[in-house]
Amino acid sequence: MKKALLVIDVQYGIVNFRDFKEELFLIESIIQNCKSKKEPVIFVQHFDQHEESQLHRYSEGSQIVSNLKEYADYIIEKETPSAFFQTNLATLLEELGVEHLFITGFNTEFCCMFTAISAYDRGYKVTFIEDATGTVNTDETYEMRGLDIRDFVGTVLHWSDVIEVQDFEEYEEMYK
């Protein structure tokens, strides 16, 4: 089964928001593993329409983190939370013969989750690597004291019984 890695929205406007060192380290480790196995690494780059946004097309914040961008085999541009909606991602994956997608990147509860669900809906086997995602949001954002957003999203996707959810150590054991 041919696999590919999606690296979602690893852009300066997000990663400069707070300390994401651990998430970026895990994402790079997964990228290197995929590269060593000649599996495609596909970056997804989000652009907002609002000029004041950190992710506006012509802002510095919209740029993919440079030390990771060098790993990209392909870059898909998107304007919504799903990397599939109105993009050429599905066509690219079909051309590459990909059947299994690994999901990493930012923001866990939006672009990563929406893309994982969209991938499943299109028939892909999906592995969501929970601790290799991050979010700029907090429990205060959602007015839910004590909420661990990554864990919550990972649990919901896991309970769906259709999307494989792993942490980095489980990924390493199973796929390295």
From TrEMBL:
Q: Which InterPro entries match?
A: Isochorismatase-like_dom, Isochorismatase-like_hydrls, Isochorismatase-like_sf
Listed GO MF terms: hydrolase activity
Q: Which residues form the Isochorismatase-like domain?
A: 4-157
Gene3D superfamilies given in the database record: Isochorismatase-like (3.40.50.850)
- Could you name the domain of life of the organism this protein comes from? Bacteria
Alphabetized CDD domains for the sequence: cysteine_hydrolases
Give the UniProt family note.
Belongs to the isochorismatase family.
- Xref: PANTHER family: ISOCHORISMATASE-LIKE DOMAIN-CONTAINING PROTEIN (PTHR43540:SF6), PEROXYUREIDOACRYLATE/UREIDOACRYLATE AMIDOHYDROLASE-RELATED (PTHR43540)
Q: What is this protein called?
A: Isochorismatase
Q: Which organism is it from?
A: Ornithinibacillus bavariensis
